[in-house]
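Feature request disguised as a bug: please show the residue count (151) next to Ribosomal protein S18 acetylase RimI in the output. Example input:
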Amino acid sequence: MITREATEQDLKILLEFEQGIVTAEKPFNSTLIDGEIHYYDLRHFIKSPDATLIVVEDKDEIVASGYALIRETEKDYYNFKTYAYLGFMFVKPEYRGKGINKIITDELVNWAKSRNISEIRLDVYAQNESAIKAYEKAGFEPLLLTMRLKE
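Example output, currently without the count:
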């Protein structure tokens, strides 16, 4: 397996991955609308100097993806000004459980470190236990849980 930066030629499969993420997340979030949802501006991540969108290939087939995006903090009380936000973590179902998520997160963390960014964040649904375990294996720890009330 190899990792590489995504190109615009990869957009078709990446858009399929995006819908796979949406489908997987709908059971965790009753506020998502029905129908097709687009979370990401994938073309922007491919072109931006402040982002990297990577894919993992196995025998010339894209089997996984993830991105890192440099963001500026909106809070003046943090001890960092910028951080890397990770997202679009998707591994094809038949490739899950093989350490590919760790390969992706390691690659994205190394990209952030190469830009002198030490604060790295991502979001995961509190009920998504398998994803939480995968991120904890990669060294992440819980920080904040968003609560909601629907009346």
